[in-house]
Amino acid sequence: MYTGIDCISLNRSFENPPLEILKSINFQIPKGQFVSVTGRSGSGKSTLLYALSGLDKITSGKVLFSGESIHDMPEKQLNHFRNFKMGFVFQFHYLLPEITVLENVLMPARKTNLHKVKEAEARKILEDFSLSHCADKTPGKISGGESQRVSIARALIMRPKYIFADEPTGNLDSANGEKVLALFQKVNQDYKTTILMVTHDAGYAKLAQRTISLNDGQLESDTMNY
Ligand SMILES: Nc1ncnc2c1ncn2[C@@H]1O[C@H](COP(=O)(O)OP(=O)(O)OP(=O)(O)O)[C@@H](O)[C@H]1O
Ligand SMILES: [Mg+2]
């Protein structure tokens, strides 16, 4: 059994109009690898990320996490997997505006009733991300770069084995983009987290160990950066 992520002949089509978006994609990602995903707009990067993480369904093929097929998991097991094993970072950070930064970071823990247990850890993550000064503010009172770092802190609170990030630097200036990349590298090294990060930026892509590139829904290249 392969212990990382095994993507086998993955296809994703949309019906109306009929469109093949992902075309027989095959690759394996070893546990603990930091992978960037690049490709032109519309090449299928977000679709791939959602298909791999089970956020979206697939048309055919399989995605295995340590041998377990995510699209064949019963609902309860899938929810458990999502709550405890995966973290997501979206291009738009979707922080809840009415609650504090600390409470936002604790949201995934609240879902599983672990928010009390995790509070000290949430404060520690905020401190590691230079965000302690934001903990008790609402998201409307912090900057865009701070918001994006908060959304990464939120993705990390359950210490997931896998992180999926869709253009986490998309809305950031270069100083904040670099901070976000440094955080991903640190999380990857410190916790051996497997990370898949979509990016348009060739420089950021190279900071991941490996880059997978899509072209028109097909795997175009797959290179090791270091
Ligand atoms: N729900 C949907 N129904 C039909 N077509 C869709 C749907 N979602 C995405 N597509 C199409 O699939 C293709 C790939 O979309 P996707 O969002 O994966 O691209 P992307 O590589 O992430 O692009 P970007 O860099 O602009 O975010 C696009 O042509 C898009 O229009
Ligand atoms: Mg996209």
Number of helices: 8
Outline the low-pLDDT stretches.
Answer: none
The largest sheet is: 6 strands, mixed
Count of DSSP E strands? 10
Distance between the termini: 26 Å
Gyration radius (Cα, Å) is 17 Å
Return the structural class: alpha/beta
Global shape = globular
Counting structural domains, the number is 1
CATH class: Alpha Beta
Mean pLDDT comes to 95
Based on the coordinates given, report the CATH architecture: 3-Layer(aba) Sandwich
The proportion of residues in beta strands is 25-35%
What compounds sit in this structure?
adenosine-5'-triphosphate, magnesium ion
In a few lines, what is going on in this structure?
This protein has 226 residues and is of the alpha/beta class. The protein has helices at residues 45-53, 75-85, 101-105, 107-111, 115-128, 144-156, 174-191, 202-205, and strands spanning 5-14, 19-29, 34-39, 60-65, 68-69, 86-89, 162-166, 194-198, 210-215, 218-224.
Task: Provide an overview of this structure.
Strands 6-7-8-3-9-10 form a 6-stranded mixed sheet. A 4-stranded antiparallel sheet has the order 2-1-4-5, covered by helices on one side. The model has no long low-confidence stretch (mean pLDDT 95). The chain is built from 8 helices and 10 strands. The chain has helices at 45-53, 75-85, 101-105, 107-111, 115-128, 144-156, 174-191, 202-205; strands at 5-14, 19-29, 34-39, 60-65, 68-69, 86-89, 162-166, 194-198, 210-215, 218-224. It is of the alpha/beta class and 226 residues long. 35% of the residues lie in helices and 27% in strands. It has one domain (5-224): Rossmann fold (3-Layer(aba) Sandwich), CATH 3.40.50.300. α6 (144-156) packs parallel to α7 (174-191). Magnesium ion (MG) is lined by residues 45-46, 166.
